[in-house]
Amino acid sequence: MQIEDCFLVGTVFKLHGYKGDVNIYNDNDILFNFNTIQFFLVEQNKSLVPFFIEKARHTKKNIILVKFDQINSEEEAKSILRNKIFLPNTFLPEMDKNEINKKELIGFQVIDSQLGELGKIEYINSETAQTLIYVGSNENEFCFPMHEQFILEIDEKSKIMQVEIPEELLKLN
């Protein structure tokens, strides 16, 4: 299997216990159905090697605890520590064509319909009750809720987010 036919799930970032279990940081926050996934592809020496899953579960939205069939000790698990984990594109969940990955928005230019250029998206916080977009420029920093009331259009090709944010909201920041 070629890397072009796969997507990055994440990275083995930590060992779990002494029986070979590992924690994978899920870069895309995708919730997988482990009843349909039999293996992960582990990058080793610039090749993708299938490792069959004995058991796997999400411990948090972005952390997957995995026990691989062929890894049965802490020493064996260390051999894949910090390796990238992939899956074939067929396991990528279908997304709404209008939906964009929040991480892809970082670096987008934010332009207000009334005020003009406001800055670039530096960070998106989805840990709060409502997702907040943080924008920075040379003059100031501010945030606003990621909501259809404020976002008019997102142009992925030009990396521009058209917004209409009340001036009062900008002054709160």
Short note summarizing the structure:
By secondary structure, the protein is mostly beta strands. The chain has two helices and twelve strands. The protein is elongated.
Plain-language structure description:
By secondary structure, this protein is mainly beta. The chain has two domains: 3-91, Beta Barrel (Elongation Factor Tu (Ef-tu), domain 3); 102-165, Roll (SH3 type barrels). It is 6% helix and 47% strand. The protein contains two helices and twelve strands, in the order βββββαβββββββα. The chain has helices spanning 74-78, 167-172; strands at residues 6-16, 21-26, 39-44, 47-60, 63-68, 84-88, 109-112, 116-125, 132-136, 141-145, 151-155, 160-163. The strands form two sheets. The chain has a six-stranded antiparallel beta barrel. A six-stranded mixed β-sheet has the order 10-9-8-7-12-11. Strand 7 and strand 8 (116-125) form a beta hairpin.
